[in-house]
């Protein structure tokens, strides 16, 4: 893969993480909270802590991918995404059937991260 293609792929994936962080915080007391409450996390203090931790992790990973790309950052992103996909699958398996693909989108993102891991210098 040439450097230009690698950068396009890297920034595309970084934007997903950055947008997720922003949207999670924007919808802190809306969709983000509803998602956790509907999944059975009724304690709002715990739910708020989980939302903040997830958004913070997304922000850090997005910034790291954009500014300090490395095999380690991509592996961390892949591990975090895999863990969050597993947690979401347990909390609300119906997310796999959602027409906009909140979990199925992780399959091509995992593929993109795998390519970036192999291409990382």
TrEMBL record:
InterPro entries: DoxX-like (IPR025695). Keywords: Membrane, Transmembrane, Transmembrane helix. Coiled coil: none annotated. The chain crosses the membrane at residues 7-26, 46-68, 73-91, 103-120. The keyword Membrane applies. It comes from the Bacteria. This is DoxX-like family protein. It comes from Lysobacter niastensis. The lineage of its organism: Bacteria, Pseudomonadati, Pseudomonadota, Gammaproteobacteria, Lysobacterales.
């Amino acid at each position: 893969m040439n450097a230009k293609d690698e950068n396009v792929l890297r920034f595309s994936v970084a934007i997903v993480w950055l947008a997720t962080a922003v949207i999670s915080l924007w919808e802190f007391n809306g969709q983000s909270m509803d998602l956790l409450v509907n999944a059975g996390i009724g304690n709002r203090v715990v739910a708020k802590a989980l939302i903040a931790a997830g958004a913070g992790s997304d922000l850090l990973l997005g910034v790291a991918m954009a500014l300090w790309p490395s095999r380690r950052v991509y592996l961390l992103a892949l591990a975090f995404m895999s863990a969050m996909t597993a947690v979401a699958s347990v909390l609300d398996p119906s997310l796999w059937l959602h027409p906009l693909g909140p979990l199925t989108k992780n399959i091509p993102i995992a593929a993109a991260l795998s390519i970036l891991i192999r291409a990382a210098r």
